[in-house]
Amino acid sequence: MIRSLRNLIFLLRIFWVLSKNGVFEPLETANAAPAISNLAKIARHLRNDSITGRWGQRLAGALTQLGPTFIKLGQSLATRGDLIGEQASEDLTHLQDRLPPFDYAIARSILEHELGAPIETLFSEFNATPVAAASIAQVHRAITSDGRKVAVKILRPYIETAIARDLSLLSWIARILQRNLAKSHRFKPVDIINVFRDTLKIEIDLRLEAAASIELAENFIGDKSFAVAEVDWDRTTSRVFTNAWIDGFRIDDTKALAKANLEATMLLTRAAAVFFNQVFRDGFFHADMHPGNMLVSSEGVLMPVDFGIMGRLDLETRYYLADILASFLLGNWRKVAEVHFRMGMVPANKSIDLFTQAVRSVGEPMINKSMKEISIAKLFGQVLRIAENFDMVAQPQLLLLHKTMVMSEGVGRSLNSNINMWDLAKPLIEEWMRENRGPEARIALVTAKIIRSIEQMPSLILQGDKALGYIKDGGIKLHPDTMRLILQARTQLSYWPVLIAFAAGWAFGRYTVFFDLMY
């Protein structure tokens, strides 16, 4: 009873804050159930007219007022331009994850409890005033007992409990929306909250963030233009993350750049290379690359911070991205469509001709334009939205990538609006394409797949034989109707021809990859 009352009070607060900011306006024309429409009409009368701006800006303001979980939800929604619109998506990209710091006494208590020692034993100096405070944690500057300068990130007290409470309520709201919104098959509110929950689980375990930073650092060993702070594992737990302190300034701090005599073109060239290598070479990228998370040293070394949100792309997805990019730059709209169908991004029952036409509508406007006039991030976002109209299932990793591309282009424009980062990355793109998508690379890829298929054939046959044995010996219990069908089939043919036919069909399907790739 008490829990239900708390949920009701919290729900009323959410409704009040969203209504005050005019967030419910789109629901008035969303073909929603009568209950939802009536709710939107009530919200209209509660709106504060002094709160102005675009819908996305007002949504960002409301989420900030609602606290940590909702700020993170807004950052997650920033990747869903297909749902909330391109402009609102961009507005949420600029959502500032800043909250007042929590008391130093609480920070000290958490630190000592997690690390199992008094703060004076662990650090010779510890700055009581945090240098940054966000929705999940805050960061303090300190010096270890052995003299190393470090940054100490501490989770907010009871943040796990607060997030669990908020997620429970959000899941309930999502289920209601999914039942009552006519177009919820595209909106998929329940899926959004589930993905959001998985993301937050990673963010509130700081050991995972530390591990991500190490992986990123290992990918750039030997690269003098990019550096990741070293992790202090002796002072890192699930609620405390300690790494080396880095001296630098924001990449969009033009005054600091000028004082350090650093040219924007040089920094953009390095940033473009870093982004390309993370996405295409490594398939592991920083997915929250706003200017505050990319620092620059006085020597021009790029130094990322905050590794709570990272993206991964498998090799097949990277091939897809490369083929899409190359086909767009060549104006081969049919090839763009074929890649989507070949990768299974668009269902086979959809018309490839209509999809090609839709792709052309996005690509033609960029013909004969210079690279500096083209926004690859905007282009990629438009392709994702077109594919969504053809029932493409949203790919979380591609949505994260799109968000990162938007942020990266924004940083580039703030430094020099006449330079396009994709133009700077063009040599890297061409080299990667030659090495990974050229004729020799394709032949090597298909050869490797054929060899793997041949190697797996004996194992497949053996597993099939074992499975039949288990059924025969009663190791697997099947429904009586299923057993009758098996017994009927047994009187007509033996198991081995069926098994061989199945294995041959499986192998044939694998080998046809050769023809698909070479085509």
Automatic annotation (TrEMBL):
- Quote the protein name from its UniProt record: 2-polyprenylphenol 6-hydroxylase
A Gene Ontology annotation in the biological process aspect, one of them, is:
ubiquinone biosynthetic process
Domain Protein kinase residues, every copy: 125-519
UniProt pathway annotation: Cofactor biosynthesis; ubiquinone biosynthesis [regulation]
Classify the source by domain of life: Bacteria
Q: Which family does it belong to?
A: Belongs to the protein kinase superfamily. ADCK protein kinase family.
> What SUPFAM superfamilies does the record tag this protein with?
Protein kinase-like (PK-like)
| Native species | Candidatus Endolissoclinum faulkneri L2
Q: Does the keyword Amino-acid biosynthesis apply?
A: no
